[in-house]
Amino acid sequence: MVQQRKIHDQRYKLVKPADAAVLNDFPNAKAAEYRHGDRKGCLKGTRGAILDEIELWARDPHKPPVYWLNGLAGTGKSTVTQTIAERIFADGQLGASFFCSRDFQDRSNLKFIFPTVAVQLARNYAGFRSIFVPLVQSDPEIAHESLYNQMDKLIVRPLKESDISTVIVIDALDECRDEEPASAILSVLAQFVSHIPNVKFFLTGRPEPRIRGGFRLPLLAEATDVFVLHNVQPSRVNNDIRLFFKQGFVELARRRQGLDDWPTREQLDLLCERAAGLFVYAAATIKSIDRRNNDPKEQLDRLLQSPESSAREGKIKLKASTTLDSLYMTILQEAFGDDDPEDDHRTRSVLGAVILAANPLSPSTITTLLGFGARDVFLRLSSVQSLLILREDPDFPVRPFHKSFPDFIIDPARCIDERFHVSPPNHHPELLAGCLELMNGTLEKNMCNLPDGVANCEVDDLRERAKRHLDPALRYACKSWHKHLVDGHTVRTPAIASALRRFLEKKFLFWLEVLSILGAAKEAVDVLDVAAKSLEASPTLDLVIDCFHFVMRFFEIISISSPHIYHSALPLCPRKSIVWGLYEPHARPLTRIVRGLPNSWESSIAAARFPSSIDTAMWSPCSRFIAVSRREFQTTISGSQSQTTIVILDAMTLERTTTLDYPLDRLSATRLLVFSQNARLLTWCGVLANGSKLISWDLQTGGLVSAIAPEQSTNPHSLTYSACGTIIAASSLGNSTFTISIYNVLLGTHTHSHSVEGRPLEEIWTHGERLRFATIDSGSITTWEVGFASAHAPVRIESLPVPDDFHPSRFRFHPTSSRLAFTTGTSTIVWDAQDSKFLLSTDTNGYEVTSMSLSSDGRFLACKMGKLGIDLWKESPTGYALHRKLISDTGFFNEVLVSPNGESIIASSGPVIQLWRTTDSITSLSDPSTLTSQKSNNASILAFSPGEALAAVTRMEDKMVTVLDLNSGTMRLTIDTGMEVCAVGVAGSSIVVVGEGKIVTWNLPVGNPILNPRANVNDSVLTTTFNDLPPPDFSIASVSPDLRHIAMVEFHRRRTTEPNHLHLYDIPTGQHLVSVEINSYTHPWFTSDGREVLCESYWGTMERWKIIEDSGSDTRLEHLGSSICPPSVLPWQSARGYEVTDDGWVLSPSGKQLLWLPPSWRSNVQDRMWSGRFLWLLDWRLPEPVILELEE
After folding, report:
1. pLDDT exceeding 90 applies to what percent of the chain?
2. Can you name the residues that pair with 685 across neighbouring β-strands?
3. Pair 636, 680: CB distance under 8 Å
4. Half-sphere exposure of 185 (CA within 13 A, CB side)
């Protein structure tokens, strides 16, 4: 093994330094390779037959490309794998190895397997490296893509191009966190294994259902050899175990005196019987006997004379847990010694830290967290050393010798002596208290000394800084303290509650810094969510909720930049929030927010913005994921093209986890999204020019499963998956009937259809193993049922009455509770069809209900009221009661969806999706009713004075105009103009307002500003009426900076054959000066000197007109040309070189990141306005325009 490590080192020295830097920086699990750690191979002379068989498989190109070594816990899979890796490396065949381990987060994370394998292949093969390095340089985010894309781009394509023949080893797949019914890694491998015939995969894992399910996939089953390790002939296994014992005792006798002719043959026979085919028993026994300061002979006698043993334990049919339990109990009895409650508790605490830790802890970290002496901790660990991997180094992590030991010691049914039993509810609080105490005493601001304004990825030595300034105990406490918050009782204990409050009041932002640097910001969301749900009403709960809002609202920036917690997140914090009150002195804004900050948290708890509008969204059945479908349009001179992209979001943070693409020509609309019951598959249904299409992806891998054209070019209006997750039903409406078509998603085929007469309800649904739907006829709802695989006619299940005069405009049926929610006119009604009674009947105050959604259990009903509001109704003893009113923070709602578990709500609004909680613990601290009056559906109108001292702002067709002092952010004047405003201008001491055919001028107050200065139309100094004002369908105007001219664009939205015109007026007289025909029909702008007028069309072209005023002649407009690229003089382009990026960064001219804009503040380019150092965000979705002052 030492020689192999030298060969590895020599090989890696041949890698160019530049390439080595790329490989080192690429995300991968650093210690997953076979040559790392304390792994040992098979004892010489043991496992000969199986090792020879595997080596023969690896060498023979005609053997199947995949080999599965299948074995129960303790049968020696990892030992065999280690030996195979060493032998294959010696033969020059080993390309990469990955040893999974649930003890380490990176080695139990599926997303690290393929990147790690790819990095090893790149180090071992120059041809592979020449392809891999440029790939990751051009696309560094590829490591975070779906498993399908990882395998395809990082492994399959480079292997095919380089034509490499190699073997890849992956051990203990069962130790990866994978909740799917079939292993995600195996699902991906099944799709690609035939593409790389020169590559073989050696895999091991327990025969758990998801591992068995993966190897049963048709594409993988036919390509796999299987060896079942626990089915090896008992005599062969016992011979190997006897040899293992003999070698162990020989080695022991070599180091210890007085052990000649020991053990006896009878003792060796009994040990082999007790091992029951488990190598882990043999290894643990040798470790137990070979303890320092123990007599090996006496120790062996104690093991063999333990009262838990019996003759039947040696039989091969005995369960593994029984024979191991006997051994573990004997070792623990000796380790604990005499019955001493206080001493026993300390030993259990130390063992609990080893067993319950989220990641393996070193003795020094255990010492810090528990507050015990270093020697005390080490001695207690040493007493059970035979059950642990323990080194002399106090900073080396301690781990259980085998995973069966933790399973034993936390199970009271197996560890029956309370002295030894580690109870998680008792020992998690100890670790939680230790973590909180350490963070309260250690955390400080900017502990890693990061420079101002940088993103984490821009700090080249970020990892080194973290290691240097954040010791392992503090890193563990910051990342994992919430893993020990196991129940509500824990956080409500006085000591924990007090420590938690002190932590949030003093160290909260410093903790977020550390999580940001460690790439673990998601941990903050999880812990605050758990704490909020666990606490009772109290000031601490209010603080936890406020911190939760802070993390959710600024999760994106917390994740990518630790310094911008103080540059962006904290300065953007509402001024009435608890977090701002506690941490205001720490704010370090790089920009000044002149105006526009909310006083309290927005109505929703999170929002995500996309480059284009959202078509539709859908919850997964488990409520953990949200699928969002959107269309992207690309406009060119030759026309426009569209592509549909589906993004899978984490339902807690709205963080993007997977992106799915499919090329679609002539897309008309997205209609439906549906998850399979186990959330493994996702199907999209869209309408194309030539009919509909059902496209399905595997969400574990990101790979395409099938693309199906529905029968008879129907347009499905509802989809549902069978319980098994492989069959999908689609219902579609005809002239007098509706059709339910059944498809096999995996095969991509149509199997059969059902034609049903009657008026269907909107949705079909899965009931157990069968399909159900409902129809409505006069006076009743009828429920029908049919098997997914059955071609027989549907069977009537029951008929339930509907209310009299049932003529709904929109409805939802909840089949489990037989409730029908519907709207009729301006009423919302919930009808209990089972008991024939109304559960809700309420007037909507004139608002039209345009979207409705029920939770799966029927507890919550969400109704979209008008365009900006949601009424959330909750089940009560008497029916439904209004629970909350939700207001859109970002504009019109398109649709509203309650999560299946009833805990959350999502609503889309153009390119933005928003998230709310239905629960009472995490609610907005703002009053939604106060937001309603601030909202306007109209665009903002803005004008700057020369010199940027003043600005006038209003909303299109509003009657109020506000003049702001930009230096102080205060109001200089509020004017009630008495007319609907379409343009304003401000210069010197005057303001001009245009609207309703009039031009009105006011003088601005001079001298010291007065409190709330107001004016109305009677205070104006000049009113002029337009002459020759055209009567267009629609017109928009702009006032020149010098208050001399008005530019007005009038266009005809319906009479498309008539040309559009640009008109120029004189402000003092209202005289019409000139008119020209234009191709554009959006807002006109004046350049800063007032000498040019700019008009941009919706198609991206820009027309420029110069104002010519010859002495003694009429004013005219000279056309300067058109351009697709906007010129730099546009008001939404900064003349000083500032920039707003698509992902929300405000950049200085030198590229420095000054401010991160939250999704609700991001807007289209045309909804921003620059004037010198000021940036205005004018999106109509904002309660009021936001003003930012920028300086380098």
Report:
1. 21
2. 672, 694
3. no
4. 29
3-class secondary structure, 804? coil
Confidence of residue 938 (pLDDT cuts 50, 70, 90): low
Rounded distance, CA 1032 to CA 1039, Å? 19
d(CA 249, CA 223): 43
Question: CA 656 to CA 173: how far, in whole Å?
Answer: 26
* Structure tokens belonging to residue 1142: 């698509």
Does this model's pTM top 0.85? My answer is no
Kindly tell me if the per-residue pLDDT of 547 is higher than 90: yes
Q: Cβ distance 447 to 513 under 8 Å?
A: yes
Locate 593 and state its tokens: 């927010």
Residue closest to 851 by CA, chosen among 890, 902, 907? 907
CA-to-CA dists, residue 990 to 152, 488, 965, 1174, angstroms: 65, 63, 14, 21
Question: ∠177-179-180 over CA atoms, to 5°?
Answer: 125
Nearest to 764 by CA among 860, 693, 756: 756
**Angstrom distance (rounded) from CA 568 to CA 1157:** 8
- For residue 317, what pLDDT band results from cuts at 50, 70 and 90? very low
pLDDT tens track for 23-36: 888 888 888 998 88
Burial of 457 from C-beta contacts in 10 A (0-12 / 13-18 / 19+)? exposed
Helical axes 472-480 vs 522-534, angle rounded to 10°: 60
| C-alpha distances in Å from residue 904, one per residue of 622, 626, 898, 1104 | 12, 11, 6, 50
**Measured distance CA(306)–CA(328) in Å, rounded:** 11
The long-range contacts involving 537-542, CB below 8 angstroms and separated by at least 24 positions, are 539/501, 540/497, 540/500, 540/501, 540/504, 541/921, 542/578
As to burial, measured by CB atoms within 10 angstroms (0-12 exposed, 13-18 middle, 19+ buried), residue 1164 is: exposed
Residue 1102 has pLDDT above 50, yes or no: yes
Cα 882 to Cα 870: distance, rounded to the nearest angstrom: 11
Q: For the chain, how far is it from start to end, CA to CA, in angstroms?
A: 57
Angle between helices 341-356 and 320-336 (to 10 degrees): 130
Taking the C-alpha atoms of residue 495 and residue 93, their distance in angstroms, rounded to an integer, is 58
Cα 866 to Cα 614, 769, 844, 881, 892: the distances in Å are 19, 39, 9, 20, 9
CA distance readout (Å), 915 to 28, 568, 658, 704, 858: 33, 22, 19, 29, 20
What are the b/e assignments for 519-552, b being 16+ CB within 10 Å? ebbbbbbbbbbbbbebbeeeebbebbbbbbbbbb
Strand order, beta sheet including 879-887: 849-854, 860-865, 869-876, 879-887
pLDDT digits (tens, 9 = 90+) for 661-696: 776 655 555 578 999 988 888 998 877 666 678 889
Phi, psi of 632 (to 5 degrees): -110, 125
Q: In one letter, which amino acid is 39?
A: R
For residues 667 and 648, the answer to whether their CB atoms sit within 8 Å is: no
* Phi, psi of 986, deg, nearest 5: -140, 135
**Is residue 225 within 8 Å of residue 66, measured between CB atoms?**
yes
Whole-number pLDDT of residue 1051: 67
Q: How many residues does the chain have?
A: 1192
d(CA 818, CA 827): 20
Residues in Cβ contact with 79 at an 8 Å cutoff, skipping those fewer than 6 apart: 39, 40, 41, 42, 47, 279
Residue 881 CB neighbours (<10 A):
11
Angle at 741 between CA 737 and CA 746, to 5 degrees: 170
Structure tokens at 649: 């979001």
Q: How many Å apart are CA 411 and CA 429, to the nearest integer?
A: 18
**H/E element holding 623?**
none
Tokens representing residue 334 in the block: 């000796």
